[in-house]
Request: fold
Amino acid sequence: MAFMPLFLKPFGGSGDAAPRSTKARAVSLVLEMLQVLAISMAIIIPVRWFLVQPFYVQGASMEPNFFDHEYLIIDELSYRLREPSRGDVVVFHYPNDPKQFFIKRVIGLPGETVEIADGKVKIYNDKNPNGVVLDESSYLDQDFTAASQTVTMKAGEYFLLGDNRSSSLDSRFFGPVKSLHIVGRVWVRGFPIDRWKHFESFEYGI
Reply:
């Protein structure tokens, strides 16, 4: 008995079919690239607009902790789940010109009274009715805050100060900032690479 040989065609091979034209292959490649782009945008856009945003520092108001032109990633999600904490470094819309973005540190919380006198910042709240001096020595080069004022925050208001107190336009000048103006907290410093850092809330113990 004679056996007929069995031949297999490789998957995707031309076999007896006519080879795909160069034009057809190009169209297929373009369609695949468009699919990948669409999927990528579907992931990136919500992340970009609702979870994190890139910003870069302008000016010297937060030195020595943040310098001009450093690239930051801002966490926009956390404040949808919780309120800003004292010590958080936040990006917000400048109250007198919402088109501008400022970066400052949260010092006073809603319902608290902030007193600045003799170069020190004093916080009055339910836990400290007689006031307590805020220890900022760990992040201020010069632990001195120029001003003489007492401000009480209303609901949803925050007292924000720059770390470089001698060169900062902050709540000492434009008053407390409403929560609706706060974009988010500084999460990561991505550039320059040698200053990469992940930031967490600062604990004052008051």
About this structure: Residues 50-198 form a domain with the Umud Fragment, subunit A fold (CATH 2.10.109.10).
